[in-house]
Specification:
Elements (H helix, E strand, L loop, with lengths): L2 H20 L19 H7 L12
Length: 60
């Protein structure tokens, strides 16, 4: 098995592990930020207002 095959096998294994870990979570949103965004950037202020009330999880 060459390194490309090994990489694909490892990626596939990690994706399956993630799916198993998250399968019972229900609807969700993942947010990622950037340490490169300046505090005076409009995107920084937009991102700091999340999560908005409309995106709060529903009670079960």
């Amino acid at each position: 098995m060459d390194s490309a095959d090994w990489d694909l096998t490892a990626i596939n294994r990690e994706l399956l592990e993630a799916e198993r870990a998250l399968r019972d979570l229900g609807p969700a949103v993942a947010m990622f930020g950037s340490s490169r965004t300046a505090k005076d950037d409009s995107l920084y202020s937009e991102g700091s207002r999340w999560p908005r009330p409309s995106l709060q999880p529903a009670t079960r």
